[in-house]
Amino acid sequence: MTAPRSTALEGSLKTMIEVFHVYAMKQGDPHSLNKGEFHALVSTELANVLADQSDRDKVNTLLSSLDADKNGEVDFEEYMSMLSSLAIKCNQLLTGAPAHRH
Ligand SMILES: [Ca+2]
Ligand SMILES: [Ca+2]
Predict the structure, then answer these.
(1) What is the largest CA-CA distance in the chain?
(2) If one looks up domain 26-93 in CATH, what number appears?
(3) Does residue 2 come out as left (phi exceeding 0), alpha (psi in the -120 to 50 range) or beta?
(4) What's the gap in Å between 10 CA and the centre of ligand 2?
(5) At 75, which helix (H) or strand (E)?
(6) How far apart are CA 44 and CA 50, in angstroms?
(7) CA gap 69, 44 in Å, rounded
(8) Are 74 and 67 in contact (CB under 8 A)?
(9) Using 50, 70 and 90 to split pLDDT, how confident is the model at 100?
(10) Bigger pLDDT: 24 or 4?
(11) Residues, beta carbon < 5 Å, ion ligand 2
């Protein structure tokens, strides 16, 4: 017996969760991204989407804007709100930009 294969969307959800935990468990609280962990995640996993966020000051500004409870770290909910707004932005770029229309 093998486990049923995940659909593409289910696999994407799993990836979003796994990526968070791979970085969150590197230092300190294993369920939360500190500045260093967040910087590593953004610069590695979102290197193309957030290419303009590659320097530390911009990443720190991004972190402050996501940090809803102001504890200096990005928890899973805060991370998901970043991915959700990124997905909306990417969708606008993909479907709204005249250059991509045929
Ligand atoms: Ca951590
Ligand atoms: Ca926080």
Answers:
(1) 50
(2) 1.10.238.10
(3) beta
(4) 26
(5) strand 74-75
(6) 10
(7) 25
(8) yes
(9) very low
(10) 24
(11) 67, 69, 71
